[in-house]
Amino acid sequence: MVKIVECIPNISEGRRLEVVEEILDEVRQVAGVTLLDYSSNADHNRTVISMIGEPEKVLEAAWRLIVKAAEKIDLDQHQGEHPRMGATDVVPFVPVRGMTMDECVELAKRLGERVGRELSIPVYLYEKAATRPERRNLADVRRGQYEGLKESVKTPERTPDFGPSVLGKAGAIAVGARPPLVAFNVNLGTTNLEIGKAIAKGIRGSSGGFVNVKALGIDLSEQGMIQISMNMVDTQGTPLYRAMEFIKTEAAHFGVPVIGSEIVGLVPLDAMLDAATYYLKLHDFSSEQILEKRVFGF
Asked: Where is the Formiminotransferase C-terminal subdomain domain positioned along the sequence (predicted)?
């Protein structure tokens, strides 16, 4: 069986689309790697990229992407609503077929070591690749963002796993291994950021909400709304519809409507089927009833 791994780099550029394309071209030039999806958000000033292929080829594509992003993105000039600490902010590896999580951890370590050694960019290993318990959670790794990390990187507790304890304009990178997650955002019909922060605090696991949810309140008031930006790290443990229903209930408490939602990047079919089954109140529905699955066998 051919081993397949997915890699989902997030780069800190979502406005200069010509720069995004230059960075994506580095992935496209690696034979055997498929660029599955990419999504740029101007407000977040961030692009989420998904690529897939055999481990060694994906590793090379990730390296080339990081090199180009470091060349093209200056964190001293970067502004956006999404937290970030690097030009390439995060690079997670996800097992897809024939891959173990341990093998993904090894890929993360190899990439991190090369980035630190050849590019002199500080690298923090996170999630399943974390070398310390306090570095498993990406939010903890990224605490203070680029501006705060300029000083804290010099302290013993923030010493990177690879690379120097000095930040250049490319910042630092979190490289890790994790199961699949879904980036799910819900938009509220209000410009009151405090409402968004309160709802995000209520839903995220670190503050007593759903253990499988990471959430932030994002200020999109120029568009007339506030966004609850979530990473759903286990959609079987916490389905998308459960997060949506919680947010709807909390928003109603504050007297504001839910005006839309979005999924950034790719999503497992089962996660969408669970939502459809819930909202359509289907009984005894099976994925075998999906026409395309029966015809094409996916």
From this structure: 180-294
